[in-house]
Amino acid sequence: MLPGRNLKAYIARFRHASAPELAYRAGLALRIRKLRATVSAGRRFVEIPALDAAEIRGMQLPAFILDTDESAIGEILGGRVFTLGEEQQAVERFERETKDKYFADVRSGPTSPDIRTVWEPARLQHITTLLLYARANPGLDGFDAVRDFARKGLLEWLRKHPFLKGPHYMSPMECGLRIPVFFYALRLLDNLTPEERQEILEALYLHAWWVSRNLSLHSSLGNHTICECVGLVFAGGVFKSAPEGRSWLSKSIELLRQEINHQILDDGGPAEQSLGYHRFVLDLYRLAVGFLERNALWDCRELKPRLELGEAFLATFRDDAGNAPDIGDCDGGHAVAPGIRPERFVER
Description:
This protein has helices spanning 7-15, 19-40, 53-57, 70-77, 88-98, 115-119, 125-136, 143-160, 172-188, 194-212, 223-238, 243-263, 275-294, 304-315; strands at residues 64-66, 340-342.
């Protein structure tokens, strides 16, 4: 999360921060302050490189394993989104109250929902569910209706939440998790107009631009960093013909290589002492590996032994039905969507 969200936590962190970290965080705060007037005035401040649509059509999605059914699709078509148990109306009310504010000026009040429950539906994983289910079931009754719902839902979200306004740009991690959804839409929706395709492409670029300048580094390194890097992997692959895109790809791969030995301990266990977060982090890595290798962007073989170590550790806690106990903190998040996971190299 960016500076200004939890003052006490940042004061405690600053007491033990190195000079490079202090300089990095000061730069973040200065950038956020300088952008306020630009965003409020509606001025364009990021130039987005042109991209040939054929480049995206030739790209491959990672492999996924779906454990969802038509009843779940029906619930989404009926208006359900994932809110971590919070009432959907409370989330939507908070969004309406804050949608026109510069993201750094958004504040929660005593009656506001937990901010994590506001962010959860904005991961757009209900859109992912529709897109991937339709792709796996081309003969689905109502196939076109499902895709059209996904298209309309995504475009509506983008128009309701313009860049850097409202609560959904407070966390670079959340921005990173949305980027793959934009890619899935660009790759799978052939019912987009050229203008709609450009709108989604610009959102993808802007999200990556923001994430790359607000990475969770230094004492903030952790699963947030992994989420951000996964987003940059996808954005870097899409914009690999542009210098900024190549920079995103290079930086995200560098951090994923660096962090895998921190996130997965030598015995395969989780650095965060949580089985739920361990599954989350492992699936994030699987998502990145699948995208990178399927699009010949980087050979990920050096990551795989550590990932297998992590899978083996988790397997020791599973019962015969494949269930594991809730050990440690967990917010119930998913790397892709509930009921959908990236293909794992060894299924246990």
